[in-house]
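Researcher: Next sequence.
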Amino acid sequence: MGVVWLVGFSRDRGEEIGAALQAEGLPASEVVERELPPRTDLGDVIVFDLDRAEPLDLERCRKEHNVPILALVSGRDASGPISAFEAGADDVVRRPHYPREVALRVRALLRAVRPR
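Model: Next structure:
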């Protein structure tokens, strides 16, 4: 099983999401506060907090890594999710986001890419 890369998260928030992932029996998580993951493997997922990471980073990450990407966005209008999808996100969660919801969406993305 792979790694869930948490990009743009503070350590505290990353630990909170990591605990939710672990509670759901999902892969270990790695918090990457300011840079992109060094490399990814099949079975990995990248979760971007677009309040702290830039859409351009997500777009670059999509070009470099062939794994599912979940983006967390703010705002009440459609611009946040639209820009996240345009940058390459496979799924989007609006704030407020709940750690368990993020974990279940990661599970769904993994299920979609795993062979049966």
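Model: The two ends are 14 Å apart (CA to CA). The domain at 3-110 is CATH 3.40.50.2300 (Rossmann fold).
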